[in-house]
Amino acid sequence: MIVDQDALEPKKQPPRELIVHRNSEINTLSSIFEPVTNGHQTSGAFIYGPPGSGKTCAANVLLNEIPATTVTENGTSGEPIETAYIDCYNGKSRRDVYQELLETLGEGPAQTRPSAATDQLRRQILDAIDGHLIVVLDEADQIGEKDVLKELYEMTGVALLPIVTKSHQLFADAEDRLDSRLTALTPIPFRSYDESTLVKILQARANVGLERGVVEREHLQIIAERSRNDARRAISILKNTVLHARSEGAGEVTTDLLDKGSPMSQSDVIRSHLSAISRSQRICLEVIGKIGPETSGPITDSYCSDMRIDEERSQRAIRDWLSDFKTRDLICERDVQNGPAYELREIVQQVLDGEIEP
Ligand SMILES: Nc1ncnc2c1ncn2[C@@H]1O[C@H](COP(=O)(O)OP(=O)(O)OP(=O)(O)O)[C@@H](O)[C@H]1O
Ligand SMILES: [Mg+2]
């Protein structure tokens, strides 16, 4: 029934031929970073778009296609080009980012530099860059100290590619938006997938991953409709349905099996979103679970009085989180008299309570 399990695995980077529809974004990315391959500087770019729109996937394609060295005018190999992929989920600090970069640059693990000051780590990176360095900062909005972005941007030889959900998240506040440094990064929007694109993504996975006839196009259409424009969700539903069909001894997917496959993958998707948010954001979610439905003011007050937090947040910052939680489908919004009120989705509460086991 299953020919290639990797093709059904949302956590695995797919081979280039399984990536459908994102050619124009990937070509734009390649053209922005191409000067580096000829030994020149680029102003870099940033990707933004909703969850499951292929941002991480596209950035990985770019990194995989970057050659190991620049090419000189007479066609010979020039300076080395290093690449680094840093996942900033769970709120990385400026120090964490530098430590990870040093490790990528071959300077050994963080434990070998326990007492080095963060500024010293920054200087060490400059010394370690031997040519060019392209840095992807995935989930860059999770970085606690945004200054690290500007510092990296200003390093000679470094080209940046941060990834965020919403374009404004790259800039910590209004003042940053006026800061000309990061605004030089070219924005590359990743629009959410429509259902027909999701069907194409699923069909490509099914062609490679499944025996012929295991899943019909009409079932892929139903999966697409249930996926809320999110390719991760779509692939996850397909995988769970097929695994469920196999465990039931069925030779093909049916609508009934599909119904049983969907709730399971919803919790998979939620779990992956929960692992992508910071500890502080998770505390905020738990606060919403306790007091919701509630508007942003009382949520901010309860959050700030929670014993577990290490830093108070402004209502504006909490509103940004609420918008992120909504995009990730972790909370829902209701209109009440004094503005929108937020509450945790029931399934999120169940996952947080551990009622739904992985
Ligand atoms: N155009 C595509 N063709 C094939 N597979 C895709 C495509 N876009 C996304 N996928 C797959 O969908 C899943 C989610 O994609 P990805 O992780 O790149 O999303 P994302 O935009 O980074 O989401 P998030 O904001 O949650 O990190 C991955 O398994 C990826 O391989
Ligand atoms: Mg991603």
From TrEMBL:
Coiled coil: none annotated. Residues 45-159 form the ORC1/DEAH AAA+ ATPase domain. Keywords: ATP-binding, Cell cycle, Cell division, DNA replication, Nucleotide-binding. GO terms for biological process: cell division; DNA replication. SUPFAM superfamilies: P-loop containing nucleoside triphosphate hydrolases (SSF52540). GO terms for molecular function: ATP binding; ATP hydrolysis activity. InterPro entries: AAA_22, Cdc6_lid, ORC1/CDC6, P-loop_NTPase. Residues 200-259 form the Cdc6 AAA+ ATPase-type lid domain. The keyword Transcription does not apply. Belongs to the CDC6/cdc18 family. This is Cell division control protein cdc6-like protein. It comes from Natrialba asiatica (strain ATCC 700177 / DSM 12278 / JCM 9576 / FERM P-10747 / NBRC 102637 / 172P1).
